[in-house]
Request: fold
Amino acid sequence: MTTPPKGNGYLVRDRVWQPDAYTPAYKTSVTRAPAKALLSFPTSLGEQTGPVFGHDMLGPRDNDLILNYAKPGEMALGPRIIVKGHVLDQYGRGVAGTLLEFWQANAGGRYRHKNEGYLAPLDPNFGGCGRTITDENGAYEFRTVQPGPYPWPNGMADWRPAHIHFSLMGHAFAQRLITQMYFEGDPMIWQCPIVGSIDTRAAVESLVASLDMTETLPMDARVYTFDMVLRGRRQTFFENRWEGL
Ligand SMILES: [Fe+2]
Reply:
């Protein structure tokens, strides 16, 4: 049983499970890592109760990266996939109404970004960004093409494994999470200096989506499942249900 901290309603982050900020094999972490010890202070009411998003802010194709940047009658190129799963709190309960934003390279591994340096071509029908909001059970789903791996200027031969970036808001700024999802069976996961900044194999595997062929759409798309866990809001423990929360 994890003991909630004093002072606010959220569990502290597990600094053993999370990667170190300073990991020299991932070069830019050297200048990004805090040079001084972190300070800890209680959250305020605003940080514990916001932000709140409504479904009415979403466009009809926000969760469809195959169509949301495509010209009329055209579609993005690449292996068609559906990514689905749940956003959970630290007790395993679904987190409803949380905003997910996701962005990725195209099927060739190229981002639509002015600072992109990889020579793979842009797909004129693929923007690479989308968003959705979890339902009452914390479930989410979106359609896209599987991104390609790409080289990046870190070491002489460093390539990122295929991945999708996620930003989650949760129910409060104290639950904010930014992470990356990888794909089951990709050998590049274990070559990546960014992934290598994570200490344990179990923690890395928690970032790898599972291929679920039982959900595959015939002649259309494969399905990958990926759950994400936010810090939990402190709950009142029922005396007979310590283990069930
Ligand atoms: Fe990326």
Confidence is low (pLDDT under 50) at residues 1-8, 234-245. Residues 28-32 form the longest helix (5 residues).
